Amino acid sequence: MADGADLSIDSARLDRDVDRMVRQYLSAGTMAVGRAARRIEKQLEAATQNAVPGRLWRAWASESYPRQGPARNPSAEVFVKRPAGRRSIGAMTFWSQPGEIRGSWGQFLAIPLPAAGPRDRKRNLTPGEWERRTGQRLRFVYRRGRASLLVADGAVFGRGGVARPLTELRAARDGKRGRRRYEATIPIFALMPVVKFRNTLAIEPIVRAGESELPIEFLHAVRALR
Question: Which residues fall within 8 angstroms of residue 78, CB to CB, at 6 or more apart?
Answer without folding.
Answer: 37, 40, 41, 44, 60, 61, 62, 207
